[in-house]
Amino acid sequence: MSWLTEIVRPKIRSWLGQETRDVPENLWRQCPACQQMIFHKDLDANLKVCPNCGHHMRPTAMERLAWTFDGGVFTRIELPKAPADPIKFRDQKRYADRLREAREKTGLEDAIVVAHGLVGGQPMVVAAMAFEFMAGSMGAAVGEGIVAAARLAVLQDAALVIFTASGGARMQEGAVSLMQMPRTTIATRMVKEAKLPYLTVLTDPTTGGVSASFAMLGDVQIAEPGALIGFAGARVIEQTVRETLPEGFQRAEYLHQHGIIDMVVKRGDMRETLGRVVGMLRGVRVEPAEQAA
């Protein structure tokens, strides 16, 4: 029946004076938790949280910054350049090619974005990891980003907040990626020695070398609802301990109940929470009316 759609329908439309219109793709998103179909504008207005079941979908790093800073106003900083392919890695394709493809797809240089501005009326430096860039894997560029964010926080006498979203260390950089674990740990120590607040917001997923370093070192550790947080995968743990893991293991709510993280905060409440917590840590009381919308 292709002749009906390819020949007859266009002729009928031309006779009726109707022009064909391109229908945008991805007008609807299906919630991976409840399978509900959501109109894309409604989903964006709700900060990519399912209005039906409350499932928090993964945003881009730039969306994260826009939602976090007061009025969506922030100043993004340029990060130091890192070696593009330190060990000349190749599997099914060259690592350099993978980097180029990820940069073209996301418009980012690597898996982290750093900016500064006001959050809940408080000056903050915010680093947001980009899961959309090679699963947010941590290589030398991410390490440089965390160090730059920590130095900027100290320079500006501002709190440091890091939104984590990562599958762990970037295997294509070998030992160089593992070196970022102690390096980022030292960077967060710089902030603490300057007596400035350091907060981490653990989002889905936060795993591997990221969870084993700077992600779990915050003065206050916050997580989004339902976020997967852990080091090794549940299947690996079950095979190692030879026991069935409890329901909800490695999810934000389970970790909160067992004292691993301090609070679970919905995305819509995150900005206000960050401003209030940082204000308390710095001894500055910010009334709700003073916080930017």
Quick description:
The protein is α/β, with parallel strands linked by helices and 293 residues long.
Structure description:
The chain is α/β, with parallel strands linked by helices. It has one domain (58-290): 2-enoyl-CoA Hydratase, Chain A, domain 1, CATH 3.90.226.10. It has helices at 2-16, 40-45, 61-68, 95-106, 140-156, 175-193, 208-211, 234-241, 252-257, 270-281; strands at 28-30, 37-39, 75-76, 112-119, 122-129, 159-166, 198-206, 220-223, 263-264. Strands 3-4-5-6-7-8-9 form a 7-stranded mixed sheet, sandwiched between helices. Strands 1-2 form a two-stranded antiparallel ribbon. The model has no long low-confidence stretch (mean pLDDT 91).
Q: What strand line-up does the widest sheet have?
A: 3-4-5-6-7-8-9
Task: Supply Rg.
Answer: 22 Å
What CATH architecture label applies?
A: Alpha-Beta Complex
The CATH class name reads: Alpha Beta
Domain count: 1
**SSE run:** HEEHHEHEEHEHEHEHHEH
Strand percentage, roughly?
15-25%
Structural class: alpha/beta
The name of the CATH superfamily reads 2-enoyl-CoA Hydratase, Chain A, domain 1
Cα shape: globular
The total of beta strands comes to 9
State the distance separating the first and last CA atoms. 55 Å
CATH level 3 topology: 2-enoyl-CoA Hydratase, Chain A, domain 1
Residue stretches low in confidence (pLDDT < 50, at least 5 long) are none
